[in-house]
Specification:
Length: 301
């Protein structure tokens, strides 16, 4: 699918597709995967905690397959092999499928936007990042990607991938209508991620713990949560722990192609384009705090 066609989906369609993920997952689970779909398992945050967090594996992803995903200029040739490995129980393959489909669900086509107010250097970067993502996602249908993203994330969570478990706790409960974890259990999830020092789990927390609007994330103190600077802190910590965040990294291209953080040479530099100097200093200080408190054994439940 060309970038122009993908952009035509629009924000409204994305909302519809997110709702469709819920129907598609519960209506057609993959054969051979163990999914937490029973009523008994949904009777409260305690059971969700057992399903999502207290699994013995909590795997970090550190293999060459991750490097192939991060450096791939075209993702489609990877998908069939990853699907076969996922069906055979390969947790990393399942998680990478969720990441691929998440990357390729949608992004803006600058040809369909008025970029006249954007500085020339940032505008050029916008075109470059969109072309980069268009090549990377060529042949992956945005509608199918939106459905497959949540499906493979949940498979990966069931197979024990910590980052997928973190995503599913914070995002899956909303998408699938399940009870929300209590603040105490959410903090336990955060502590497990910190103890594992998993950059992809940190990235998941960056996406989950941004601005909430209702003040509910204040209950997650002392962990960064509730503001743009808090979200940035988790992203900076992920970069420090090994997430690719350089000039040609998927994350930097995504920040530009799906938003306005364009023209930077790294993720850390890009974050500074969307925050005041004071907010960026706060994010850096909170990231340093996270790194000082990572690697510790989490308290027992």
């Amino acid at each position: 699918m060309s970038p122009g066609k993908r952009a035509a989906i629009g924000l409204a369609a994305v909302v519809v597709l997110v709702l469709a993920v819920q129907w598609h997952w519960h209506g057609s689970p993959q054969r051979g995967q163990s999914l937490h779909a029973s009523g008994q398992e949904r009777q409260g945050a305690g059971s969700i905690w057992q399903q999502q967090v207290a699994r013995p594996s909590g795997q970090r992803l550190e293999t060459d397959l991750q490097a192939r995903y991060a450096s791939a200029k075209w993702l489609l040739p990877m998908i069939d092999g990853l699907k076969q490995r996922s069906l055979a129980g390969d947790a990393e393959a399942s998680y990478l499928l969720s990441r691929i489909y998440n990357d390729c669900t949608w992004y803006f086509d600058p040809q369909m936007m008025d970029l006249s107010a954007m500085p020339a250097e940032q505008r050029s970067a916008k075109y470059r990042s969109t072309a980069w993502m268009g090549q990377r996602c060529e042949g992956i249908d945005g509608n199918e990607a939106a459905l497959a993203w949540g499906r493979y994330r949940r498979v990966a969570a069931d197979q024990g991938v910590l980052a997928a478990q973190v995503e599913d706790v914070f995002e899956g409960t909303r998408a699938y209508g399940e009870p929300k974890l209590s603040p105490a259990d959410q903090k336990r999830v955060i502590e497990l991620a910190l103890s594992a020092q998993d950059p992809y789990a940190y990235l998941a927390l960056s996406r989950a713990l941004g601005y909430s609007g209702d003040g509910a994330m204040a209950a997650l103190s002392p962990y960064p949560a509730g503001t743009q600077a808090d979200s940035a802190a988790w992203m900076l910590a992920a970069c420090d722990r090994g997430l690719p965040c350089g000039a040609d990294s998927p994350l930097l291209h995504q920040l530009c192609a799906t938003g306005s953080m364009c023209g930077a040479g790294s993720v850390a530099e890009a974050l500074g384009l969307s925050m005041s100097p004071e907010e960026l200093d706060h994010a850096r200080a909170r990231a340093a705090w996270l790194l000082r408190n990572s690697g510790r054994r989490p308290p027992q439940p």
